[in-house]
């Protein structure tokens, strides 16, 4: 019986070989998952994605333009790098601008729990971008990456608000010059 | 230990006495069709099987399988032997350091168990195609990476051909991490697969970035800080290579300085290597137990002498939870991106436009897609969302299929209305 199966297999293989020859690359599980996540993104009017290479959906950038809160009027750009181990591994997210924000350091690292210690494969890209958007509506002084900014937010909210304004226009706060990020 | 004696060119069966007893005895638990006796023994001996990984688990597996009566074993591993492997990877000796794990392991077992043939392949599992995997009766994994597991899992699932039962290759997956381990049996497309169970893998324990950046409490926090924050900040042009002693020393010094600032003691060079490479000490006994469970499953699957594991056995031997195992049946996920939907062959007219093709998908009974997005492995053919991607893929809609895909290429189709994704193999009608 085994022999018969082998013969059948050989026949099928021959038929395939005749038709195609080369082995075809398959759609990977990570890509399928990203494809699904992208189709479920709820970007709203304040977020936009850009794909430098439309064929590469594992690398893209996200622009957030908050329409309320202290960061209103700014345009914040992040890169997303997704590995082939997604969704086991979280996407790597970095801010491409130098901005004044308690949860984002000057190198662009972002402190968002679901990007690191609380990531789970059941989460998706939408959960991440919602979390990112929330960082701009409610900057969080208790998880500081930029210690000075967090300290300002904690001790003097009005002063912090002014510093945000200054930094967004490309001004400097406490000797550090930030990138201009205003939309207009 | 019984050894084989060769008299007049025949190998004595003395070594296999216990195996022969098991395989010659009927069992009320065995499959109804199970016929004990010499035919079962020869079925076992003629089973060609594949072991993926020749490391901690792989060494145990190869030894166990050879001593369980398997005679035609193939082994794949892309790694070379490191001096730190020698404490538990017992098929390797000091003089083997730097050589291929697969080759050394194969030669060692062949020498110790006369009559067994072990064929090594020194390379990646991704080098091999479906035709290669098709030759085996079953596949046993002793891997340390989830990525490799996902690859072999999806490959074996894609190989399943409904018209050919032989194309279904049982996958036995062993895994260990410190004192914890797991063995599972996967029947591609029939039972829960590795992708279905992906969320069961414990994520790597991580410390919040802000803890690292502001108030470290442990020496490990200082090392992670040096790794994640100091390196990219101060040496962003150098690609970190943990096998380069200068790089490790740099991280070590940075971590040490930071630890001193916060009055933390305990940062060492070895700890720096361990934290950055995420090394969890490998425990030889965990490997031995998990490999034994996997070998047992291989023997049962190959001979039908007893029911096989259904389908997940976890083991822990750490001091906190005590010695404990639990077996349960992991369920198949309906919306699993890998086994939820098999690639279907559809015949397409190569001169049809992509837009018309997507239109036909909407009409197909099994799909009825309203807003499909479609990709091949390397190309976004049409992504309905997000807007930027839609705009840049829209021109493809008016192109002919033959200009976008090759004959027989696989496409993934997703639709927000469905949790599952569809896979189609587009065969050009001639």
Short overview:
The complex is a heterodimer of chains A (184) and B (430). Chain A has 184 residues and is α+β, with helices and mostly antiparallel strands. Chain A is 34% helix and 13% strand.
Please give a structural write-up.
The complex is a heterodimer of chains A (184) and B (430). With 184 residues, chain A is an alpha+beta fold. Chain A is 34% helix and 13% strand. Chain A contains five helices and six strands. Chain A has helices at residues 2-19, 29-39, 125-137, 147-155, 157-168; strands at residues 47-50, 59-64, 76-81, 92-95, 172-173, 176-177. In chain A, helix 4 (147-155) crosses helix 5 (157-168). Mean pLDDT of chain A is 87; it is low at 18-22. The radius of gyration of chain B is 26 Å and the shape is globular. Chain B starts with 5 loop residues before the first strand and ends with a strand. The interface between A and B is large, with 55 and 65 residues.
Helix content of chain B: 25-40%
Percent of residues in β-strands of chain B = 15-25%
- Classification by helices and strands of chain B: alpha/beta
Q: From the coordinates shown, what is the CATH architecture of the largest domain in chain B?
A: 3-Layer(aba) Sandwich
Mean pLDDT of chain B: 90
Give the topology string of chain B: H per helix, E per strand.
Answer: EEHHEHEHEHEHEEHHHHHEEEHEEHHEE
- Count of individual helical segments of chain B: 14
CATH fold group of the largest domain in chain B: Rossmann fold
Low-confidence stretches of chain A: 18-22
Sheet with most strands: strand arrangement of chain A? 1-2-3-4
Using a beta-carbon cutoff below 8 angstroms, give the protein chain pair with the largest interface and the number of residues from each chain: A-B, 55 and 65 residues
